[in-house]
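Are you able to produce any protein sequence you like plus the matching backbone structure tokens because I've never seen that pairing?
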Amino acid sequence: MPGLVDVARKYAAALTDTNGVTLPPAEVERFLLDFAGEVAARPEDAGATRRFTALFSSAPLGIALTDAAGNVVEANGALARLLGTSTTALRDRHIADLAAGPQDAERLRTALDGLPLTADARRTVQSVQLGHSRDGELTTNVTLASLPGDRPGTYFPVFMAADDDDLHLLGERLRHQNLHDPLTGLPNSAAFNAQLELALGSGGSDEIALLYLDIDGFKVINDGLGAGMGDQVLKAISRKLKSVFDGQHEDYVARLSGDGFAVLLRGPELTAQKTVVLADRVLEELSEPVYVDGHGIGVSASIGIVVRPANDGSHSDLLRAAELALHRAKEAGKAQWMLFDPQLDARDRNRYQLGAVIAGALENGEFSLIYQPTVKLAKPDEIAAVNAGLLWSHPERGELGPEEFYPLAQTTGMTVPLGKWLLQESLGATARWREQYGPAAPDVCIRLPKRLAIDPDLVLLVKNQLDRHRLPARALRLCTDRASMFDGEGELLDSFSVLADLGAQLVLTISGSSDLELIPRYQLPVKHVILSGPVVDALADPDPAETDVRHLSQLVTRAKELGLRIGAEGVRDAGHAERLREQGVLAARGSFVAESATGDEVDEMIARHAG
């Protein structure tokens, strides 16, 4: 059981550590009485009285200790200051004599007479007029309570008073703090939601506009210049918002959290057109740099807007609509506003529903491998490699390709589990082909999601899967492109180099000379390049332009100089394939072979090739 020193420290800390907010008198009373109770329970500790006296003297609440009859034995400095007198002058006065008039004196006597001298007894008398030495009358709230005496089982009254005006100011201050953001002074999310509920609950035909704002790339400011600088920028943003929304439409600007703000507009003549004009003004204001400590800091914002009658829809519907519009603004490139569109909302809702169930679909076996065979152009019946991808057999929406679910997986964090499953299953298929067809079995080529490509455990993951299926590393081709070769800071990914050192074959998809020249510039361990995009499409025409043919020829020549094997994707027909072969392209994939193939179809193709 802790000693009285620990008890005193506990209550002293509670009285002083208040985060800059003055404790309400009721809290001070509770601390004081609880402390006195613990002191009384330890009469053997001679220092208890001294510690209690120190606490009593420093309390911000006016307190008088009295005898059983109600005469003041000791008053603290706070009570003396409250009444404009001294502690000495208060001693021996009856608490009823502290009242400014006979009526209030009688109220105090009645309260004292009705106070049982037992543990936890307490009576509160509100709006008592006490006498002040200079100001005459002072409105206070008085609490009478029983305080344990120095002998077990004895109790004496204690008188506690607080200025009613101070209480009112304290209440107002606490109420303001509860409803306003301490950094910007704007209303906070609780106040904003209450205001929105009020606007919707009032009914009427007024239009309501809700704008959700999110500062683009604010993390860069915080991380690059420090949180203190970020706070200054947020203050400047709040001032700019208040300057734009000047009250013409019952404007209400709030800071919701972090770098998120909201604006509520209301008025009989409010329209979507007027609202987007204001949104444009916000973007224009924010485009002007904010100068803090000599730094000109530029910011932009994405804004989601919803405008509708005040009697149309619920609070949650309105918030959700604004959030969806904000997400759409960010997805479209940021630094712009988007107006809520019900049709787009229905489309997005379907997309988000799809994204939300990817994890369950993977666990329930709804994903399978889909392949694109790459054939040798000199011998189109021979398979050079097989590109493996994912197909989602959705129970309601049918077969979904990667382009339909990978962007959603990126949002929900499911790209890594999907990538791991793709790697595991494709290497499993490769091991089966090698066991069944021997040297005729093709290599498998997979494109890792960017999130998995930058995973620090990628090398270990690949090595474990190769060992599990007893495959040499050269059986795996990792297909990547310019964007996936570098991390967010522009640094070359070490994992690809390590995997190449293990024996995996790195395949780089290129669309022009600038992509190809990355290989010598960074000494990339690339063995194959795949031509893609316009450079391949240009030769789909039976009579391609001479400049297009020359461009392709130059790429192929340069690739050969670098010792690379050249392939192409997106090849449409046999004529297209032949024109590419004539320019030196060795292998290709596309609809001229098969746009896609199931596992059984690939098995059949490999069997024909092996035969």
